[in-house]
Write a sequence for this structure.
């Protein structure tokens, strides 16, 4: 970048630093705040006294969580669901992406399948038909409902397919000459070249499964089947949906919530994401670019 | 002959994905007929009586339907516009930074909120704007009595759009940042030699170079004008803000899964899916025609 040292330029830099520092603060503060509330004294937190540092110090809420079987149960369900969902979804997406990356002169029905996929990505039957369908399969309360009911993430298939299509054609030709079949080409030639896109897609699916709460809410009937996000959602956001709620009742409900305990649970739910996040950063950036620019 | 053999393997590779798609995407589409029936779970799809467009007529007579459509539209448009502009401003400011480690730090932190769920974010938002939240504590220091921000229909839409932009601005800036690195540095040098100031460089070099990206992203978000964000609204709203904050998706959820009005909810859902589908197809066509952009 061009260096200039005029007064206006320096003032711009100064203002820019301040502004971005404020943005930095606005992104970090909520996490810090949650942490502060979770280790603060219960009475102080419930009275809303915590602002930028913990008031009093108490690990009582973390101790309480240690004895909360339902919390650990939902944590375990979320881990299972994320691992199963990511593995399965990635495997199926890779398998689909390869034939769809072939030119239509090599795979005549390629475009037909492509249109089916895109149609399913853009149009859906809506909530109620989807719910009744999942119910009719007998998947209510099953972990497989959490893994499968969200449907095949078509967009990821398209990402991988675009990546395959941009690999040099010689790669494929050389493998064919060497006598490799489609499976060998996919697994022994294409996949080793596709680590960036696979990592990005695995990340997208993993984050989806870890953060998803709605399927847990509607497809699981009992709280011992809830994934973590649904468990927390039920805990924190428990406001009746009847339309006769008054502002005073709303205030009372706010008083009832146990803020230190809830904050501790929310904080623990964030930790896995905070731990893996720095390692995955380079992959999601490249993943977005794969989706955004093609050829 | 060889082609037949290879194609056989291709079908096999497509099989698991197609089964998944059929079971959880295509079979539910058959349920759309419910929107034209008076669906009775006992009788099922085949035997429930047909009512034509009655569900749609009834839906549009409900005053709720007008409220949720207007809310959905306003909230979604607000998000689309600000999610185009704020990340652009952020990306340009970030691009002007010379201190590379600070730049990296800001980027890393700004992408983070995107990866936290709305369940988590909602508890944080309520912790900050709730009755016993930080904002009220700070206002209390200045002698202002606590406000019910989360139950105030007058500001709920602004709160939704604001918190959404806050959660996504960093992530949405990624594409802009990539576009910024693509600008030819010679342009800046030539302009600087001609005596252009920092501000003039941004106005006359950076911004014009970004128009294509902004327009393209804008066109592609056309399909979202009925997507106001279920997860966010569901986790933040309450009956006191239904008048401004209830959206199509949350309404469909309450109608269908809480009041068990399956046909009406399906009709409302179909109304949304159909319009969104048309808009997405139109937006893809426009993007293809004017920016040569294809998704697949």
């Amino acid at each position: 970048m061009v260096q200039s040292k005029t007064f206006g330029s320096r003032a711009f830099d100064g203002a820019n630093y301040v502004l971005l520092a404020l943005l930095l603060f606005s992104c970090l503060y909520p996490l810090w705040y949650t942490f502060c509330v979770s280790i603060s004294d219960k009475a102080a937190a419930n009275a809303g006294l915590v602002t930028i540092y913990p008031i009093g110090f108490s690990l009582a809420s973390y101790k309480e969580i240690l004895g909360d079987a339902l919390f650990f149960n939902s944590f375990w369900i979320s881990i299972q669901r994320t691992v199963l969902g990511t593995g399965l979804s990635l495997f199926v997406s890779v398998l689909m992406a390869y034939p769809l990356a072939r030119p239509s002169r090599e795979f005549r029905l390629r475009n037909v399948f492509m249109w089916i996929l895109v149609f399913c990505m853009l149009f859906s039957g809506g909530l109620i038909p989807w719910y009744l369908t999942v119910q009719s399969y007998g998947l209510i309360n099953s972990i497989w409902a959490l893994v499968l009911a969200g449907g095949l993430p078509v967009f990821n298939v398209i990402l991988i397919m675009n990546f395959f299509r941009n690999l040099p054609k010689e790669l494929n030709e050389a493998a064919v000459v060497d006598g490799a079949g489609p499976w060998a080409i996919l697994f022994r030639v294409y996949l080793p070249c596709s680590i960036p896109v696979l990592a990005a897609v695995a990340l997208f699916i993993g984050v989806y499964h870890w953060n998803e709460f709605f399927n847990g809410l509607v497809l699981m009937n009992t709280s011992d089947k809830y994934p973590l996000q649904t468990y927390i959602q039920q805990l924190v956001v428990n406001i009746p949906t009847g339309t006769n709620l008054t502002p005073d009742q709303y205030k009372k409900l706010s008083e009832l919530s146990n803020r230190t305990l809830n904050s501790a649970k929310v904080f623990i739910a964030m930790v896995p994401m905070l731990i893996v996040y720095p390692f995955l950063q380079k992959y999601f950036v490249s993943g977005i670019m794969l989706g955004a620019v093609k050829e | 002959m060889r082609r037949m053999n290879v194609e056989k393997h291709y079908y096999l590779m497509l099989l698991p994905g197609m089964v998944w798609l059929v079971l959880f995407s295509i079979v539910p589409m058959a349920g759309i007929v419910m929107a034209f029936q008076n669906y009775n779970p006992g009788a099922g799809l085949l035997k429930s009586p047909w009512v034509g467009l009655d569900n749609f007529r009834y839906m549009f007579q409900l005053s709720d339907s007008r409220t949720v459509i207007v809310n959905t539209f306003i909230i979604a448009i607000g998000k689309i516009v600000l999610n185009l502009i704020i990340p652009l401003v952020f990306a340009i400011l970030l691009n002007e930074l010379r201190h590379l480690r600070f730049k990296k730090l800001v980027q890393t932190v700004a992408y983070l909120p995107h990866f936290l769920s709305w369940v988590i974010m909602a508890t944080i938002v309520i912790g900050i704007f709730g009755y016993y939240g930080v904002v009220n504590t700070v206002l209390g220091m200045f002698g202002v009595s606590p406000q019910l921000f989360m139950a105030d229909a007058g500001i709920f839409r602004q709160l939704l759009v604001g918190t959404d932009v806050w959660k996504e601005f960093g992530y949405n800036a990624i594409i802009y940042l990539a576009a910024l690195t693509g600008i030819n540095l010679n342009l800046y040098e030539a302009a600087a030699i001609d005596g252009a100031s920092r501000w003039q460089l941004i106005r006359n070099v950076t911004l014009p170079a970004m128009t294509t990206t902004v327009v393209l992203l804008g066109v592609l978000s056309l399909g979202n004008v009925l997507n106001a964000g279920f997860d966010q609204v569901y986790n933040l709203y309450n009956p006191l803000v239904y008048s401004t904050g209830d959206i199509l998706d949350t309404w469909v959820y309450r109608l269908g899964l809480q009041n068990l009005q399956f046909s009406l909810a399906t009709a409302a859902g179909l109304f949304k899916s159909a319009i969104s589908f048309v808009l997405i197809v139109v937006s893809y066509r426009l993007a293809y025609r004017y920016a040569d952009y294809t998704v697949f």
Observations:
- The CA atoms of residues 212 and 291 of chain B lie 8 Å apart.
- The radius of gyration of chain B is 24 Å.
- Chain B touches chain A through 110 residues (CB under 8 Å).
- DSSP finds 14 helices and no strands in chain B.
